[in-house]
Give the backbone structure.
Amino acid sequence: MSKELIIKEIIRILSANLTVLSTASRASHAAATHAECLPDNKYDTTALEASYIAQGQANRAQEIRIALECYRTLTPHDFDDETPIRLTALVDLADAGGDVRRFFLGPQSGGMKIGDEGGEVVVITPGSPLGRSLLGLRCGDEVKAGAVSFTIVAIC
C-alpha cells in the first residue's frame, strides 16, 4: 500500500470517528441539559456526569479535527535506503525470527491500524517511544522496542 493510500485511509477513519463522536457529544449534551436530568436532591449527579461525558467527547472530537487537518496538509516524502527516517516514512522492521512489521511515521493518531494486502500498517508518531527511536536511523540499523530488537529492512 502506498503512503498516499495510507494517508487517505487515515483521513477516512478519522472522518468517520469524528462523525460518531460529534453525534455522541450532542446526545450527551442534550442528556445533560434535559429536564429529566435535573437533580432531585443534592446527591443526584446525573446531569453533572452527563456533562463530563459530553465535554470529554467534545475534547476528543477537537483532537480528531486537529489530526485531520495535519493529515490533509501532509506531504509525503520520498525515502531510499540511505535517507534518515523522519515524518511520513513507511518503515519495515524485522525481528530476530524474520517476521516483518510495517509502521507509518505520522504526525498524529498513533496506534491506528490500517489494513494492508500484506498484513497491517501501524501508525506511530515521533512522540512515541518507537517513533522517537526510529528518527534519524537508516536501512540496516537496529532499533529496540521494549525487550525486542528489530532491524530496519526497508524505508519508503
About this structure: Residues 6 and 114 are 7 Å apart (CA to CA). The helical segments are 3-33, 46-72, 129-134. The mean pLDDT is 89. The radius of gyration is 21 Å.
